[in-house]
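Continuing the batch. This is chain 6 of the set; chains 1 through 5 are on the previous pages. Same settings as before, nothing changed between runs. Recording input and output for traceability.
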Amino acid sequence: MRPFAARRVLLGVTGGIASYKAGWLARLLGEAGAEVDVVLTTGAQEFVRPLTFEGLTGREVYRDLFAAGHALDHIRLAREAHAIVIAPATADFIARAASGQAGDLLSAILLATTAPVLFVPAMNDRMWAHPQTQRNAAHLRDIGYSVLEPDVGMLAAGEGSGPGRMPEPETILAHVGRMLEERGELAGRQVLVTAGPTREPVDPVRFLSNRSTGKMGAAVAAAAWRRGADVTLIAGPLEIVLPVGIRHVAVETTEEMRDAVIRALPETDVLVMAAAPADFRMDAPASGKLKRAAGPPKLELTPTPDILTESRGARRDGAVIVGFALETGDAVATGREKLERKSLDLLVINDALEPGAGFAVDTNRVTLIGRDGKPEELPLMSKREVADRLLDRVEALLGER
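Output for chain 6:
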């Protein structure tokens, strides 16, 4: 899985109760394709055993700076790592790292590495809030390390739910991916993605909508953030977990989505219109619930706004505009016409009747059409892979401008 394949990630585990989550993080990193070297501090070994990580990674676990025959492990591991993540990072280890100590293997590695480093704090909320811990974390950021903010949630021994909880391994994995990703044209760019369906009210309890879940748009947003972009996701009602790192703007109707897109466009470098907004709405939604006893209602429909067409005047000069089209007929011919009519740089077409593609699945089979009108047919692949192939094309377009 991009960008983990054939990359070395050093996972440092320090002595906190959240260290049990580090095993799942090691598993996720390995499944993504990374080679994972685990370093346990003395404190960590009071909570988790080396054998656990050997079983999860299939690799030797490192523990001792002074182990016989391993005198230069701190130099070798520091040099071989493409990224280092400390999870959990206790208050004690954060303090020692901030002062440049090197009395154990993990802290010595930090002084010897040039790889990007991510600290994932986990501790009691009062320990995290202490001025000294805050100064230490700020100093680590000043040095050039990344320090995640802890989550808010239940802490050890039933202690409240303040900030101090270790973020979930999936969140950490996303941040490690962003550290590993080679920076291209999207780094520092403003990317706007739309996702999911919209809902048009029929009465106070019913609405017109479609089968979209938002998976494709969320995959594009996640991949753009991983590549270093500042990402805003404008989305209708979603059935998925939001991607890490993005700004989320929730909307319900097509008109609300159009307004949110047009407000954001003047500062947007890339728009990816992956949402499936409803094409029609009720001409006059009922103010009260339609009663079954009254018989089938007559639904008078009117078109909803065409977001891409109406957005043309708000687009920033040089912005890359990407549209999506879900078709059931001659998709390529229809796509070429849509590309021209809506002034797009790239159109992503998929067939609503294609097995394994379309709504509510994790895969997609799409055709990309650029300004030259030549179709690029992609095989069936995960929506994450489709997002990366799409963003490769977007970065090429940005590089030409």
